[in-house]
Every structure is written in structure tokens, then in C-alpha cells.
Design brief:
With about 280 residues, this protein is of the alpha/beta class. The protein contains eight helices and 15 strands. The strands form three sheets. A seven-stranded mixed beta sheet has the order 1-2-4-5-6-7-8. It has a six-stranded mixed beta sheet with strand order 9-10-11-13-14-15. A two-stranded antiparallel sheet has the order 3-12.
């Protein structure tokens, strides 16, 4: 039995722990659909010290004899340090569930030699996600940074080709249900665990600036492949999180790594104070 990691939550049979991968300096200019001064005000009101920074994390899920990683971070080493601090090592991981294949989610999947870091894991992602990153037409339309992202995604999928699986409406891991949440990328996905006392949704990149994009769900980030679809998905998931009182986890949530969504007169707010 693993000793519970700091800030972990027990959801039914599964212990879920956030794994920090640090943060990246991004800037509020990445946002559209909101005045930058209004965005800065929201950050200040929420007590955010560095309003343009984006927190990055993955999640470790243990239970039923399984050790599961949801996203692998940037590859800078911080997430692996967090993984080991939680009592697991890369060779313990038997499954990696990907929300999508942007570099801050897959950068940690390969070691310095380009080989799988999680040697014993089966890697799952949505088939539309794999299709997108293998699309030569999309690659050719991308700018230089985007083309580097395509190259990394292709290298990673090739490295894991013998242990690659695709998500559908069925459970890739018993007790963990994938949900298609498109817009940020074509195959962007979340993962839901339901238990009698509490249900958890790991919602991937529904938000990058959580205080801003819950208060103003129309605010989009430059990383969205389809901003209109991403907004529609975000609005639907925020409403669902409230109506079902879901515990939320997200790769850019920051704080404790978990939160509830609370409705306000104009939108929603993040509440990470609840147990």
C-alpha cells in the first residue's frame, strides 16, 4: 500500500495525486476575447502573484494494482522529481493516459536518447489526436514553432508505436472513463472517475488561466486549434461541473491541483478550499 502523497485525493479505489512540472512564462497577451486589463484585474483579485504564468502538472493515479500517469509534462525533469517524491518511479508506471499531444504534456515521454521513458507503460490517446499530428497538410501550414511541435509528437508516437492504444467511449483502464473534450486540439480528452462519495474529472486544458477562463469562459488562448469549439466545450464542462458537483483536476489548475467550480452572477469561479 502506497503512503498517500501530499495533497492526494482518494476517489473510490483510486488515489490521485497532482505532480507539479513547474510553470512557464506565457503572458496575458496570449488571450483573446477579453481585455488584457480586465484579465489582469481578475488575476490580481484571485491573488495570483505572476499573472502571466501558466502552471503545469500531470497526475498520478494508483489503485486496483495499477500505476497510471495522466500526461508527462515538458521533459524538464520537474515532473519526474514530483513522481518520485510521490513514491513512484517511471518504471512503475503501467499506463500513460494523454489528454493531448502538446509539448507540455508529452515532452517527458522520451528520455535523452529518444527512447520511451516509461518503458513498461501502454500509451493511450484519442485517435483524432494521433490523426491530427500525423497530418502532413497541418504540418505544412504550421509556423516554425508549430512544426517543432509536430516533430516531437511524431517522434513520441513512433517511439511508443508498439505500446500505443486509442481512446474511445470504453474504459482504457477499468474505473477511469475517457471523455472527448474537443477544441483545444481535435482529440483533446479528459478522464473521469466516479465513486459514491465524489466524482473527479481530470479536464486537461479546458483552461490555461483558470481564474480568467472560468470567470470569462469566452476568453480563448492562442494554443487552441479551434477556439469556438474550445469555448463551447469549456462552457458545457463548467456547467456540468456545477450541476454534478464534480471535483476538478487540470493540467494548468495550479494551487492544490484540485478545485470545485462555483457559479457567479457573470460566470464561474475556482474554489480550491474545499476538502
Amino acid at each position: 500500500m502506497h503512503k498517500p502523497a501530499f495533497l492526494s485525493r482518494q476517489i473510490g479505489d483510486f488515489q490521485v495525486a497532482p505532480l507539479s512540472d513547474g510553470s512557464m512564462a506565457a503572458g496575458l497577451a496570449l488571450l483573446s476575447g477579453i481585455n488584457i486589463d480586465d484579465a489582469a484585474d481578475i488575476q490580481r483579485s484571485a491573488g495570483v502573484i505572476d499573472p502571466g504564468n501558466i502552471d503545469i502538472s500531470g497526475y498520478l493515479i494508483r489503485g486496483r494494482g495499477r500505476t497510471i500517469l495522466v500526461d508527462a509534462g515538458t521533459g524538464g525533469g520537474v515532473l519526474e522529481t514530483s513522481l518520485r517524491a510521490a513514491g513512484s518511479a517511471p518504471d512503475d508506471v503501467d499506463t500513460v493516459l494523454l489528454t493531448h499531444a502538446h509539448p507540455d504534456h508529452i515532452g517527458g515521454l522520451l528520455d535523452a536518447n529518444g527512447a520511451p521513458r516509461y518503458r513498461h507503460a501502454r500509451l493511450y490517446l484519442h485517435p483524432l489526436e494521433a490523426e491530427y499530428w500525423q497530418d502532413d497538410a497541418m504540418l505544412n501550414r504550421a509556423n516554425a514553432r508549430g512544426q517543432r511541435n509536430f516533430t516531437l509528437a511524431r517522434r513520441t508516437l513512433d517511439a511508443y508505436s508498439r505500446s500505443l492504444g486509442f481512446l474511445d467511449e470504453r474504459e482504457a483502464v477499468a474505473g477511469i472513463r475517457p471523455l472527448w473534450l474537443p477544441g483545444h486540439t481535435p482529440g483533446h480528452s479528459g478522464f473521469r472517475i466516479d465513486a459514491a462519495a465524489q466524482s473527479l474529472l481530470i479536464w486537461g486544458d479546458i483552461v490555461h488561466f483558470p481564474h480568467i477562463q472560468t470567470a470569462r469562459p469566452a476568453a480563448a488562448v492562442a494554443f487552441d486549434c479551434d477556439p469556438a469549439q474550445a469555448r463551447a466545450t469549456r462552457e458545457a464542462i463548467l456547467a456540468q461541473a456545477v450541476s454534478e458537483n464534480l471535483l476538478i483536476a487540470g493540467m494548468h489548475l495550479g494551487g492544490s491541483g484540485f478545485a470545485h467550480i462555483v457559479p457567479t452572477s457573470h460566470g464561474y469561479r475556482i474554489d480550491d478550499s474545499a476538502p
